[in-house]
Design a protein that fits this description.
The protein has 472 residues and is an alpha+beta fold. Among the domains are: 75-175, PAS domain (Beta-Lactamase, 2-Layer Sandwich), CATH 3.30.450; 331-464, Alpha-Beta Plaits (2-Layer Sandwich), CATH 3.30.70.270. The chain is 47% helix and 22% strand. The protein has helices spanning 4-74, 81-89, 126-132, 173-179, 227-233, 273-276, 281-321, 331-341, 359-366, 368-386, 408-424, 443-464; strands spanning 100-104, 109-112, 117-119, 135-136, 140-141, 149-159, 162-172, 190-195, 201-204, 240-245, 252-259, 265-272, 345-357, 391-393, 398-401, 428-440. Strands 1, 2, 3, 4, 5, 6 and 7 form a 7-stranded antiparallel sheet that branches. Strands 9-8-12-11-10 form a 5-stranded antiparallel sheet. Strands 14-15-13-16 form a 4-stranded antiparallel sheet, with helices on both faces. A hairpin with a 2-residue loop joins strand 6 (149-159) and strand 7 (162-172). Helix 1 (4-74) runs antiparallel to helix 7, helix 9 (359-366) runs antiparallel to helix 10 (368-386) and helix 10 (368-386) runs antiparallel to helix 11 (408-424). The longest helix is centred in the N-terminal third of the chain and has 71 residues, at 4-74. The radius of gyration is 50 Å and the shape is rod-shaped.
């Protein structure tokens, strides 16, 4: 018989093992997902580094072209517009960021490649510009078209160490944003070029207009990433990651930012989570499927074990309280019921105590199988008449029943039917019936029924076998 304590321990151990297995699978899948995500960020970081380098190289190449142009202009009479224009037009700008070139002269006039000249002394101070030397400006408004935003790659034209003119390579930022191509992530990545000093966006392949990085404020960020952290790193030229949710599409976006090396600019490369994980999507799906399968199997196993152990416990309990010959409750169940009844008060209660006559003689004459058959017949007849949940075989030939009906007359009538039915099969019983209006516990009631049964049994053996003890 499996004890309650042992079954409980087995269930606890099984549950603990199940929880540990589930936690292990969950931990490993989560760790794998983190590693896959980190790998995606690493790839994004590598791509961002490369784009930052490409941007810096292109800007430096632009400055190199402008420097070569400035040297040629310095060898000419700067007042000869035709000669200067031929030089300005002789360089191809198709592989550069520069859209157009302009030359600022000391008198405040600006010469464009189409030959037009403008007085810009109110907007450009030649001496101030000359003092700055070669530089790349931050985002500014175009002098000729206020709705356009530009960056100027500035190179001084020097002769004998003196700045005689200033050459501007003008980059139209809206045009650059429209034409800039990114081949990464199947062309689905987007790029921002950000001024770390003020958050101005100089290049944006994501949106139609150039805004400010502060527009990301208030966007939903995934756990572990904050807008404030990015705003601390970018102005200080420090690279990092962001993970946010697009307001327009609702997609989760992975972003990495790195300094470009020009002014205080940083490049931000972004891609949707689906694209970032596309290379590892099969691994993610396999891990997810594995987690689902393992979890389903584990839950099924735990469910089966809980059911099995609970069934085993119920079966063990039933065996411990069931008489194996008759199928009725045994003495252990009977004593348990009596003990549980002691603190309670019962009203209108009936107890019938039954003893089988002649069991000993039948066993001796025809064997124990015949005796067991008699006991089963008694049990069946009692169960048929009383249908009580409180029907016990408490000894070799003794039965006790607590009828559902507390009417002594009804119970007596049913016992007469039992006696008649058994007599027809060649069996005999003695019984005692006790009824009490009120009783504390049930032991006194059982004792009274037992005494009445003994009186009837004495009468039976006096008339049939006067030499035999009543308890035989």
């Amino acid at each position: 018989m499996v004890s309650k304590k042992r079954v409980g321990m087995m269930m606890a151990v099984t549950l603990l093992i199940g929880v540990l297995l589930f936690c292990s699978v969950f931990f490993l899948v989560r760790r794998a997902n983190r590693e896959i995500t980190q790998r995606s960020f690493d790839e994004l970081t590598t791509a961002t580094h490369q784009i930052a380098k490409d941007l810096a190289d292109t800007a430096n190449a632009d400055q190199t072209i402008l420097s070569a142009m400035a040297e040629l202009i310095a060898g000419q009479d700067e007042r000869d517009n035709d000669a200067v224009l031929r030089i300005m037009k002789s360089f191809s700008l198709s592989e550069t960021f520069v859209s157009t070139v302009a030359l600022l002269r000391p008198d405040g006039t600006l010469l464009l490649t189409d030959g037009a000249r403008y007085d810009v002394s109110g907007a450009f101070d030649f001496e101030t510009e000359a003092a700055r030397g070669a530089y790349i400006s931050d985002r500014e408004t175009s002098y000729f078209a206020p709705e356009k935003l530009v960056v100027r790659n500035v190179v001084p034209v020097k002769r004998d160490g003196e700045t005689i003119a200033i050459l501007y390579g003008v980059v139209l930022l809206q045009e650059l944003s429209r034409n800039y191509q990114i081949d990464l992530y199947n062309g689905n990545a987007f790029l921002l070029l950000v001024d770390g000093n003020n958050g101005d966006i100089l290049l944006d392949t994501w949106h139609d207009s150039l805004g400010n990085l502060s527009e990301l404020r208030g966007r939903k960020m995934l756990k572990g990433y904050t807008y404030e952290e990015a705003m601390k790193k970018i102005p200080n030229g420090i690279g990092g990651d962001m993970c946010t949710v697009s307001r327009s599409t609702g997609l989760t976006l992975y972003l990495h930012y790195e300094p470009v090396g020009i002014n205080n600019w940083s490049v931000v490369l972004g891609v949707s989570e689906a694209e970032a994980l596309a290379g590892t999507r099969g691994v993610v799906q396999t891990l997810s499927m594995m987690a689902i399968i393992v979890t389903a199997l584990l839950l099924s196993y735990l469910g089966f074990m809980v059911w099995y152990l609970a069934s085993a416990r119920r079966s063990a309990f039933r065996m411990s309280v069931t008489d194996q010959v008759t199928g009725l409750f045994n003495r252990s169940a009977f004593e348990k019921y009596l003990n549980e009844s002691e603190p309670h008060t019962f009203s209108h209660t009936v107890c019938v105590y039954i003893d089988v006559n002649g069991l000993h003689e039948l066993n001796n004459k025809h064997g124990h199988e015949a005796g067991d058959q008699m006991l089963r017949a008694v049990a069946a007849s009692l169960d048929e008449q009383f249908r009580s949940k409180r029907l016990y075989r408490i000894g070799g030939d003794e039965f006790v029943v607590f009828p559902e009906s507390a009417d002594p007359t009804v119970c007596e009538a049913r016992m007469q039917v039992v006696c008649a039915s058994l007599a027809a099969q060649g069996y005999s019983i003695s019984y005692g019936l006790a009824a009490q209006e009120t009783t504390e516990g049930l032991r006194d009631l059982v004792r009274e029924a037992d005494e009445k049964m003994l009186e009837q049994k004495r009468t039976y053996y006096t008339s049939i076998h006067s030499h035999r003890d009543p308890r035989a």
